[in-house]
TrEMBL record:
Taxonomic lineage: Eukaryota, Viridiplantae, Chlorophyta, Chloropicophyceae, Chloropicales
Keywords assigned by UniProt, alphabetized: 2Fe-2S, FAD, Flavoprotein, Iron, Iron-sulfur, Metal-binding, Oxidoreductase
Cofactor(s) listed: FAD
GO molecular-function terms, A-Z: 2 iron, 2 sulfur cluster binding; flavin adenine dinucleotide binding; metal ion binding; oxidoreductase activity
Protein name stated in the entry: Oxidoreductase FAD/NAD(P)-binding domain-containing protein
Length: 184
């Protein structure tokens, strides 16, 4: 099955948000390749860093379910109230056959979020940071996975992902190891 996540803003998003469970919609099938599935046999990639903003997390959940090498799921959200799939990602991390680490970056955290960030400070599998994600964070996350040749996959609005992708290239990550899908 396919999963869609809709933030209820805009004309089409609002119409999708109003659909009831079980209603059918007509759509085109997914096309192209994105994420770890795009790797060629014999690739030297040794870890995957999935980077999402907001509902861009949707395809990353499926990728985390299918992880075959050390993986980090990096999710940038405003606060804990706007954090979809949090519980499912925690379950994936707990049950995965390979390390699947979760990193959340909250740009507008609540007091409760700040307490949660403090509580996760020493944990390896699950960490919350009360700040915007930066390229130095992504490089550190890849290093924590033990990666020497990580694949970075982005899904989110261009104003979020484009600067991070450019900064990764400036830091020496080959363009072939940076994949993205965008919206908005």
């Amino acid at each position: 099955y396919y999963r869609i996540s809709v933030k209820n803003i805009g004309k089409v998003s609002s119409a999708l948000h109003e659909l009831e469970e079980g209603e059918e919609v007509e759509s085109l099938p997914p096309a192209g390749s994105f994420g770890p599935a795009s790797l060629k046999p014999g690739s030297d990639v040794d870890a995957v860093v999935l980077v999402a903003a907001g509902v861009g997390i949707t395809p990353m959940v499926s990728m985390a379910h299918a992880a075959t090498m050390p993986t980090a799921v990096v999710h940038a959200v405003r606060n804990g109230k706007q954090w979809p799939f949090r519980g499912e990602l925690q379950e994936i991390s707990a049950r995965a056959g390979v390390p699947v680490r979760l990193r959340a970056f909250l740009s507008g955290p609540t007091e409760q979020d700040l307490a949660a960030a403090e509580a996760t400070a020493g944990e390896a599998e699950w960490k919350i940071a009360a700040k915007r994600v930066g390229v130095e964070d992504l490089l550190e996350i890849a290093k924590d996975l033990g990666a020497s040749r990580p694949l970075f996959c982005f899904c989110g609005p261009l104003p979020f992902s484009a600067p991070l992708q450019a900064a990764l290239e400036d830091a020496g990550i080959p363009a072939a190891n940076i994949k993205s899908e965008s919206f908005g």
